C-alpha cells in the first residue's frame, strides 16, 4: 500500500508540473501576440488604452477590422446586409449522424452480450437438477431469473458480490461461470427448496450475480435521446417550412417581400444593351440624371417623378429598360412581380409592400421595379370581395407608400404592364406614377438595331443581311428577334457549321412565326392538291387586288399547325391602315376557301380555312364597331362592353346588336364574292401556279410574280 501511495503521489506531482508548464506556455503565447498587437496599435493609433492589450489577438483583429476607418469593404457589406433576414442553416444530416452514433453505442454492447450468451446451452429445469446429481455441474449461478450450471474444474471465477445464500455456504467468489442455463421456477434461488436441497446434498457452489449497473453516460443519453429526437425533428420541420420546402409558403417570412436584389444590388445592364426604343430610353435618361445628380434638379425647384409606368406589348423590353436605368445610375435595384404580393392569407400583400419600401428606404438612392403591376393595380370595386378584397388592400398600401416618399428621398418606382386600361386611376395620377413611357413595337430600323445587339458573341457568314431579316419580321418584339438569332445559331451548330448563314436565319424566322417544318409527315396526293390550290388562291387574290403586303413565299410544306402557308411582307412600315387595306386583306384571307370551292365544289370545301375565317371576321368586326368604317353606322363606337366591367354588359340595344351582326355579315359576303370573281377570271393562272407548286413545293415571291406576268419560270 505504501508503494502504491508513493507512486500515486509521484504521478500527482508530475501532473501538477505538467499543468504548471502548460499554463506558463499559454501565458507566454498570450504575451507574444499582445506585444505584437501593441506595436500595431502604437503605429496606427497612439491613443489606444493599455487595457485593450489584455484582449486576445483574434478579438483585437476583428475589432480593428470592424472599426478601421480605411476598411473599404465595410460600407459595401453594410449595404448588402441591409434589409436581409439572417438565416440560420440547420444541419439535419448532422443530427441524424449523432443519433446513429448514440444508437450504436447503446445497441452494440447488447449485441456483444448476446453473442457471449450464445455459448450457453438452454436445458430444462429437471435436466438441470439431474446434471447436479450426476456431478456434471459443480457451480450454480443465479442471474436475471435464470439459473446457470458449470463444471467447476473447467472455469475460473472472477470476484463478485455474494448474497446471503452464498455467504452461508462459505463461497469466496473468485471465479466466473459459463455453461448450462435453465429458467427458475420461482423468482429467487433461495426460495426453491428442492433445488437448494439438491445443491447442498451434492456440495455444489452457489454464485449469485447482481445485475450490472449501467454507466452514467449511457443513462443520461438514454434519458435525453427521445427529447433530442423530438427537438431535432421539430427544428427540421420549422426550418423546412421557413424555406418554403415542398412548394409550401414561407410560414415565418410570410410578410417579408420577395424582392430580388441583383448581385451586389447593382444591375449590370446599361442603355447600350437596349435598342429599337430610342424615345423610351430618352425619357428614362432623365431619371438616371436625377439619381446621379439630384442637387442639380433641386436647386431650380424641379421634382423628379416618383413613379414611371412602362406601357407596352409583351417582349418589347420594359424589364430590360428598368434594369438599364439601375445599371446606368449605379444604384441598388429591387425587382418584384405584382403577383408575388398577394397570397392566400389576408394582410400578407400589404405587409410585403411595407417591407419592400422599408428595404428601399434603407438602400436609398435605389430603384424599385414592379413587373406586371396590373396583378395588384386593377381598378377597385370590380372584384367580388368588395372593400375586403386582399388585392385591393395591397393596392391601398402601395398607394400610401408611394405618397409617403419625402422630397429628399431618392427612390424611383418603375412599373411595367401591358394592360394600362385596367389600372386604377389613383395609381396613375401625378404624385405616384406621374410619368408614362410608351414602349412601342420596334419598326424596321429598330428591329435591325435589336438584331445587331443580340448578334454580339455570335459568328455570322458574309451573306447575312439584318435588313432583310428585319423586313421579314414585321410585328415582332425584341424577345422574338433574340429568339430568331438563337434558333439560327442552334440550326447552324446542328448542321456542323461554324458560322450562321442567311439561310439559317430565314429558316429560324419562319420557325418562330409558323413552327418547325414537317417534311417527314406523310400527306396524301389529294391533300397535297387541296393545299396547293388553297395557297395559290391566297397569292393570286393578293396580286390582283394589289395588296400592300407583297407575296414573299408560297409553300405546301407543313409547318407547325399549318398544312402550308403564303408568307406576305409589307413593302414599308405603316403607322395607320386604310379602309381599303382591311377590305383587301379580308378578300385575300378568303382566297384559299374560294379556290377550294371553284376547283372541288361547295360540298368539298375543307377545314383548312378556319384560321382565315377567324381573322377575316375579326377585321370586319373592328371596322364596324371600333374604327367607324361602316357606311351604315358611320363613325360611332360600338365596341359592346366597357373596360373593367366584370359582367361585360352591353350599352346598346338588342336591335342595334342585330344590325351590327348584319353589317359584319354583309362585309364578309361581299369580300368572299370578290375573291371568287378574281379566281374565276384568273383560272388559268390558278392552275399554272398550282402545277408548279406541286412540282417544287415552294415558290418564292419573284418566281410567283413572273408567273402572273406570263413569263417562263
UniProtKB/TrEMBL annotation:
EC annotation from Swiss-Prot or TrEMBL: 3.4.24.-
Membrane topology recorded in Swiss-Prot or TrEMBL: Multi-pass membrane protein
GO biological process terms, semicolon-separated: cell division; protein catabolic process; proteolysis
One Pfam family linked to the record: Peptidase_M41
Segments forming a coiled coil: 669-696
GO MF annotation list: ATP binding; ATP hydrolysis activity; ATP-dependent peptidase activity; metalloendopeptidase activity; zinc ion binding
Subcellular location: Cell membrane; Membrane
Gene Ontology CC entries for this record: plasma membrane
Binding sites annotated in the UniProt record for Zn(2+): 534, 538, 612
Cofactor(s) needed: Zn(2+)
Region (Disordered) residue spans: 1-75
Record flagged with keyword Nucleotide-binding: yes
Cofactor: binding details: Binds 1 zinc ion per subunit.
Binding site for ATP: 312-319
Main location group: membrane
Catalytic residues of the enzyme: 535
Alphabetical UniProt keywords: ATP-binding, Cell cycle, Cell division, Cell membrane, Coiled coil, Hydrolase, Membrane, Metal-binding, Metalloprotease, Nucleotide-binding, Protease, Transmembrane, Transmembrane helix, Zinc
Composition bias type Basic and acidic residues, residue spans: 9-75
Transmembrane segments: 94-112, 216-238
CDD domains xrefs: RecA-like_FtsH (cd19501)
UniProt domain AAA+ ATPase: residue ranges: 304-443
Subunit composition and interactions: Homohexamer.
Entry similarity comment: In the central section; belongs to the AAA ATPase family.
Function: Acts as a processive, ATP-dependent zinc metallopeptidase for both cytoplasmic and membrane proteins. Plays a role in the quality control of integral membrane proteins.
Protein name: ATP-dependent zinc metalloprotease FtsH
Amino acid at each position: 500500500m505504501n508503494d502504491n501511495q508513493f507512486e500515486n503521489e509521484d504521478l500527482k506531482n508530475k501532473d501538477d508540473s505538467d499543468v504548471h508548464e502548460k499554463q506558463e506556455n499559454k501565458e507566454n503565447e498570450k504575451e507574444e501576440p499582445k506585444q505584437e498587437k501593441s506595436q500595431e496599435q502604437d503605429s496606427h493609433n497612439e491613443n489606444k488604452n493599455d487595457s485593450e492589450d489584455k484582449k486576445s489577438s483574434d478579438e483585437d483583429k476583428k475589432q480593428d477590422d470592424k472599426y478601421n476607418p480605411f476598411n473599404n469593404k465595410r460600407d459595401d457589406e453594410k449595404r448588402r446586409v441591409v434589409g436581409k433576414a439572417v438565416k440560420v442553416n440547420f444541419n439535419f444530416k448532422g443530427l441524424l449522424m449523432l443519433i446513429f452514433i448514440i444508437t450504436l453505442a447503446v445497441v452494440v454492447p447488447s449485441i456483444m452480450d448476446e453473442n457471449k450468451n450464445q455459448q450457453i446451452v438452454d436445458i430444462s429445469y429437471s435436466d438441470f437438477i439431474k446434471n447436479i446429481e450426476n456431478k456434471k455441474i459443480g457451480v450454480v449461478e443465479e442471474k436475471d431469473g435464470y439459473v446457470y450450471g458449470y463444471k467447476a474444474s473447467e472455469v475460473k471465477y472472477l470476484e463478485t458480490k455474494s448474497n446471503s445464500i452464498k455467504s452461508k455456504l462459505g463461497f469466496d467468489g473468485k471465479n466466473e461461470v459459463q455453461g448450462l442455463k435453465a429458467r427458475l421456477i420461482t423468482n429467487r434461488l433461495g426460495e426453491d427448496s428442492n433445488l437448494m436441497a439438491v445443491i447442498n446434498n451434492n456440495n455444489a457452489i452457489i454464485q449469485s450475480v447482481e445485475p450490472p449497473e449501467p454507466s452514467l453516460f449511457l443513462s443520461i443519453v438514454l434519458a435525453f435521446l427521445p427529447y433530442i429526437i423530438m427537438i431535432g425533428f421539430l427544428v427540421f420541420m420549422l426550418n423546412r417550412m421557413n424555406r418554403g420546402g415542398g412548394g409550401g409558403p414561407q410560414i415565418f417570412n410570410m410578410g417579408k417581400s420577395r424582392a430580388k436584389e441583383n448581385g451586389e444590388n447593382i444591375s449590370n445592364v446599361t442603355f447600350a444593351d437596349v435598342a429599337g426604343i430610342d424615345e423610351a430610353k430618352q425619357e428614362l435618361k432623365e431619371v438616371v440624371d436625377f439619381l446621379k445628380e439630384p442637387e442639380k434638379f433641386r436647386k431650380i425647384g424641379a421634382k423628379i417623378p416618383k413613379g414611371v409606368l412602362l406601357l407596352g406589348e409583351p417582349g418589347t423590353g420594359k424589364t430590360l429598360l428598368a434594369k438599364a436605368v439601375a445599371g446606368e445610375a449605379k444604384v441598388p435595384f429591387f425587382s418584384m412581380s405584382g403577383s408575388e404580393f398577394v397570397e392566400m392569407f389576408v394582410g400578407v400583400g400589404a405587409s410585403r409592400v411595407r417591407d419592400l419600401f422599408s428595404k428601399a428606404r434603407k438602400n436609398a438612392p435605389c430603384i424599385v421595379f414592379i413587373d406586371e403591376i396590373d396583378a395588384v393595380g386593377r381598378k377597385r370595386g370590380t372584384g367580388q370581395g368588395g372593400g375586403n378584397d386582399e388585392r385591393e388592400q395591397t393596392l391601398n398600401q402601395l398607394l400610401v407608400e408611394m405618397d409617403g416618399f419625402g422630397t429628399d428621398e431618392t427612390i424611383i418606382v418603375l412599373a411595367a404592364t401591358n394592360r394600362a386600361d385596367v389600372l386604377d386611376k389613383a395609381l396613375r395620377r401625378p404624385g405616384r406614377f406621374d410619368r408614362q413611357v410608351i414602349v412601342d413595337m420596334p419598326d424596321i430600323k429598330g428591329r435591325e438595331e435589336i438584331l445587331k445587339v443580340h448578334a454580339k458573341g455570335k459568328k455570322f457568314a458574309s451573306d447575312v443581311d439584318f435588313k432583310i431579316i428585319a423586313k421579314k419580321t414585321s410585328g415582332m418584339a425584341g424577345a422574338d428577334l433574340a429568339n430568331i438569332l438563337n434558333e439560327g445559331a442552334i440550326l447552324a451548330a446542328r448542321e456542323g457549321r461554324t458560322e450562321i448563314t442567311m439561310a439559317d436565319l430565314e429558316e429560324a424566322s419562319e420557325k418562330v412565326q409558323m413552327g418547325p417544318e414537317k417534311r417527314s409527315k406523310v400527306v396524301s396526293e389529294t391533300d397535297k392538291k387541296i393545299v396547293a390550290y388553297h395557297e395559290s388562291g391566297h397569292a393570286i387574290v393578293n396580286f390582283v387586288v394589289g395588296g400592300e403586303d407583297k407575296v414573299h413565299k408560297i409553300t405546301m410544306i407543313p409547318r407547325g399547325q399549318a398544312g402550308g402557308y403564303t408568307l406576305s411582307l409589307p413593302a414599308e412600315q405603316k403607322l395607320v391602315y386604310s379602309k381599303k387595306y382591311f377590305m383587301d386583306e379580308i378578300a385575300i384571307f378568303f382566297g384559299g376557301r374560294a379556290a377550294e370551292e371553284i376547283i372541288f365544289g361547295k360540298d368539298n370545301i375543307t377545314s383548312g380555312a378556319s384560321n382565315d375565317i377567324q381573322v377575316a371576321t375579326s377585321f370586319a368586326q373592328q371596322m364596324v364597331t371600333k374604327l367607324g368604317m361602316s357606311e351604315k353606322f358611320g363613325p360611332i363606337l360600338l365596341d359592346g362592353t366597357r373596360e373593367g366591367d366584370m359582367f361585360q354588359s352591353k350599352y346598346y340595344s338588342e336591335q342595334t346588336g342585330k344590325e351590327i351582326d348584319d353589317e359584319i355579315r354583309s362585309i364578309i359576303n361581299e369580300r368572299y364574292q370578290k375573291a371568287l370573281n378574281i379566281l374565276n377570271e384568273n383560272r388559268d393562272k390558278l392552275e399554272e401556279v398550282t402545277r408548279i407548286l406541286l412540282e417544287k413545293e415552294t415558290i418564292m415571291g419573284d418566281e410567283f410574280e413572273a408567273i402572273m406576268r406570263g413569263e417562263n419560270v
